[in-house]
Amino acid sequence: MLMNGTLKGSFYLNSFSTSSSPGMEYQFQYDERWTPEKAASGIQATYPKSQFGLNASNSAVSDYWLKSNDFLKIKNIVFGYTLTAQKLKHAGINISSVRIYGNANNLFTFKNALTKYGYDPETTDQGSPYIFPLTRSFIVGANILF
Description:
By secondary structure, the protein is mainly beta. The chain has one domain. It has helices at 27-31, 36-40, 85-90, and strands at residues 2-6, 10-12, 66-68, 71-83, 97-110, 137-145. The strands form two sheets. It has a four-stranded antiparallel sheet. Strands 2-3 form a two-stranded antiparallel sheet. The longest helix has 6 residues, at 85-90. It is elongated, with a radius of gyration of 24 Å. 8% of the residues are buried.
């Protein structure tokens, strides 16, 4: 098993803290933005109101967009079992050996504030507005020797 993580790390969400064009915000920003209607009904907003253009105050550098990057990830698990010729002959099978194996990658990430934004905590901010999903893969196989 391979595990990795960080402690006391941080990630700056500057690539999507604001947008200069309407329709370029992420869904979570739009859903959790401040609006006069939400304020009047007492709903607490997570993000500032949407502002577009070069003079939008949401683009100011601020620790508001700094999010914890602390995480612990099960990166890789490999398992396998070999049935020897002796065990197979006892079962009436005439094969030298059978090895059954499996592998899982990016199995689970514990305690990470970036997950709700769709970010893999190992992502580095390249200033790109694109978020790529966390890829999880499973491999199962068998080696049979006659």
